[in-house]
Design a protein that fits this description.
two-stranded parallel sheet, about 500 residues, 12 helices, about 10% strand
């Protein structure tokens, strides 16, 4: 009973955990205790309802884009790298949990030795030469030895160093999980922007070819008028310059189409050229929905994966201070050995040959010349760095969202203006066609009005692509497009 009572102080010590307890993320927005209630750059056309975290691209209603996103999330190498790191972090957590338990080993040994004869007499060199010395044996000796053993050791976590290590590993695993989500957010935006770039380049290529055809028709008519003395050389050269300038745009646009096809193939984990047949036919740029949900800054900070990763890294660094603090105090290891053996197999069943050993060992590096305190200082510095990084990520996230909202609002106004300009150009072209059929306008004037219509189409198409790109950037800034990783 006295021995059992003596263990009580030891068990009480085992409940002690040194180092600071993590109290949650710090204030990260200057003097404000909480983020603002709403986004500063949002207007009345944006909904404050919480957006869906996953599959935001389905709001663009483009089946081909949805297929590309699914393929990319399943096969992109960058996401696979993040998932592999998550697997490593989860395995590290399981390892640290296992390190809290005793460590045990079992062994079985068989030894056979042939020992030479020993000459213990004083016959000198002559006796050795004759091979028969006084007191020596005439032949060698064979020895067999059998042994079964079991040993165990257990470090008592007196000051919580092991518990802090598990705490840090748990936070690191959560950070790795958030990094997987962050990789998915970036990937989904990259796929959408490459797809929009492809469709925009294909549309502009069609319009450029239409413009080139119309300009050539105008040039041919002007050449006829020049030959008849009704047009000047200056008019001919001016039109020829327009044709050459338009033709010069066609080749870069063709190259852009191929570049976007290559990019999309790589993003879904395939070789360049794989998507040429599937995506080679031109398609329209998908349009954003009329109503866009953006939520509020508080939900943004809770949702964005990079913020969650930074916060979990801060928690891990805080726990590592406790690991460094625990190293300043004594360590208690309990060790035990059980063995049985002898020179025959029968000795393994004879309990008289049983050997047991128990050895508690207390270790304390009392003369460390400040090394332990230096490690604590390093851990505290790493925690301070992680806290500063967390604050920086939060502020960057808020800026990303506000910038994206501002660009999206301005681009919508631009598209509305260009849509009105296109409508005006369409009406002008139609009126000029009517005047031409009535004989009150020349063919050159009609072709010029048609050229202006095509130019307005090009400007509007490019602006629509910019609007959808800004919508994609807004989804990325809001931290959308990730799915919770599977597996434990």
């Amino acid at each position: 009973m006295r021995k059992q009572l003596s263990l009580i102080p030891l068990l009480l010590l085992g409940a002690c955990t040194v180092g600071p307890n993590y109290a949650g993320p710090p204030k990260a927005i200057g003097s404000a205790a909480t983020p603002p209630a709403g986004f500063v750059r949002a207007d009345s056309t944006l909904a404050t309802t919480a957006p869906a975290v996953a599959d935001w691209w389905t709001t663009l209603n483009d089946p081909m884009l949805t297929w590309l996103e699914e393929q990319a999330l399943a096969s992109n190498p960058n996401v696979a790298v993040a998932q592999a790191r998550l697997k490593q972090a989860r395995s590290a957590l399981r390892l640290e949990r296992a390190n809290q338990a005793p460590n045990a080993n079992a062994s079985a040994t068989y030894l056979h030795a042939d020992l030479p004869a020993l000459n213990l007499g004083g016959g000198g060199e002559q006796g050795g030469a004759n091979g028969n010395a006084s007191g020596g044996s005439g032949g060698g000796t064979s020895v067999d030895f059998f042994n079964l053993g079991f040993d165990a050791s257990w470090e008592i976590d007196l000051f919580g160093g092991r518990r802090r290590t598990v705490e840090a590993a748990r936070a690191s695993a959560a950070a790795a999980e958030a990094n997987v989500a962050d990789a998915q957010v970036s990937l989904s935006a990259d796929v959408a922007q490459a797809y929009i770039g492809l469709r925009d380049a294909q549309q502009r290529l069609i319009l450029a070819r239409d413009a080139s055809r119309m300009q050539r028709d105008t040039l041919n008519l002007t050449l006829q008028r020049f030959n008849n003395g009704a047009a000047s050389q200056l008019e001919v050269e001016r039109l020829r310059n327009q044709v050459e300038s338009t033709d010069a745009q066609i080749l870069p646009l063709s190259a852009s189409v191929e570049t976007y096809l290559n990019a999309l193939a790589i993003l879904i984990g395939e070789a360049p050229g794989t998507l040429d047949q599937r995506l080679g036919q031109p398609g329209k740029v998908p349009l954003p929905p009329a109503q866009v949900a953006v939520g509020d800054p508080t939900a943004l900070l809770q949702r964005r994966p990079d913020i969650r990763a930074a916060e979990r890294n801060l928690a891990a660094q805080t726990a590592r201070i406790g690991v460094a603090e625990a190293a300043k105090f004594p360590r208690l290891n309990l060790m035990g050995i059980i063995g049985i053996g002898g020179t025959s197999l029968d000795a393994l069943t004879d309990l008289d040959n049983l050997v047991t050993l128990g050895a508690p060992m207390l270790q304390w590096n009392v003369l460390n010349f400040g090394r332990a305190n230096a490690r604590v200082g390093q851990a505290e510095g790493a925690r301070d760095e992680a806290e500063a990084q967390y604050r920086g990520v939060v502020l960057s996230a808020l800026r990303d969202a506000e910038d994206a909202l501002s660009r999206f609002r301005a681009r919508r106004n631009t598209v509305a203006t260009l849509a009105r300009a296109k409508a005006s150009a369409d009406r002008s072209a139609m009126l000029m066609q009517q005047r031409y059929r009535a004989g009150t306008a020349t063919l050159i004037d009609t072709l010029d009005a048609e050229r202006q219509r095509v130019s307005a189409d090009q400007s509007l198409s490019q602006a629509v692509a910019g609007l959808t790109n800004d919508y994609v950037a807004l989804q990325k800034a809001l931290g959308l497009g990730w799915r919770a990783p599977t597996g434990a």
